[in-house]
Automatic annotation (TrEMBL):
Catalytic activity: 2,5-diamino-6-hydroxy-4-(5-phosphoribosylamino)-pyrimidine + H2O + H(+) = 5-amino-6-(5-phospho-D-ribosylamino)uracil + NH4(+); 5-amino-6-(5-phospho-D-ribitylamino)uracil + NADP(+) = 5-amino-6-(5-phospho-D-ribosylamino)uracil + NADPH + H(+)
Listed name of the protein: Riboflavin biosynthesis protein RibD
Active site, UniProt feature: E58
Chain coiled-coil ranges: none
Molecular function via GO: 5-amino-6-(5-phosphoribosylamino)uracil reductase activity; diaminohydroxyphosphoribosylaminopyrimidine deaminase activity; zinc ion binding
Lineage start: Bacteria, Bacillati, Actinomycetota, Actinomycetes, Propionibacteriales
Amino acid sequence: MVDHRTQVDLGHMRRALELAASGPEADPNPRVGAVVLDSRGEVAGEGFHRGAGSPHAEVEALRNAGHRARGGTAYVTLEPCAHEGRTGPCTDALLDAGVARVVFATGDPNPAASGGAARLGAAGVQVDSGLLKAEALAVNRTWAHRIRTGRPFVTWKFAATLDGRSAAEDGTSQWITGEEARNDVHRLRARCGAIIVGTGTALTDDPGLTVRGLDAPLPRPPLRVVIGRTPLPPSANLFSGEAPTRVFPHRDVGRALRQLAEDGIHHALLEGGPTLAASLLANGLVDEVVAYVAPALLGAGRAAVGSLGIHTIGGAVRLHPTSVSLVGEDVRIIAVPNHQKQETH
């Protein structure tokens, strides 16, 4: 049986998670939400992190609470930071406000920012952790992946017919899927910090890789990334002024991903052709697959992925489906490699 205090804690942490989800998903910083109660247990302030350079969630909630925060409780989805970055440490803000208790969902995996819980406890603040931890981890799964691995979380998106063709025999590929699926891709792009293609796709399809059709403008458009040695003409759509573009004139995809991570990119969307997709898959660099399968048959044409060096069914790259749904008349399948499934269970 859940006692009253636990029920209260759960309610406020769920609200903090709702606030966290309001933050920009592709921002270099984690999404964090905070709720501050006064000493009587009434909500005095709320806040969430609105992006790099803006106040952290705790600071925003404390500002809204004002003097009512003294003797109260703060619920935060991520361990309050203990380092001096573009903004001051949140632990200092909580201590200065006189908060008596801090409840956070999950620890900060970034060693440069962690340690806030110990600092608060040493100052006499009651600290409780682990409440709704799984939900909090899900809010920042790609950001935490970058901290843990040193590279962005890579989602490979592709569209194909039922027989696995991403283009017809004459090279045409517009449009395999319907309008609803294409709109869904734009929503997926909006959640990512970078969109990656190879020079083959850039030259053949001349894509723009922009985000269109959203209800509200993005704080910043995804970085367009091209990997490969073949130069692109200055007239390519990827060099339009609609979004920034970065070209990696080499084929070392691992190195390119590490450089993107150093620049704060934690979620990259792979929209490249079969060759680049095969390279990332073969090197274990794909963390999620989003496939849009159209109810159509071509019988010939370009395959969705190139050779993986697999010669027997036993060597197949196996995926664990996490979602299967209809998007218009197309089927969207979201799946993760089996090694990712094991890591998240």
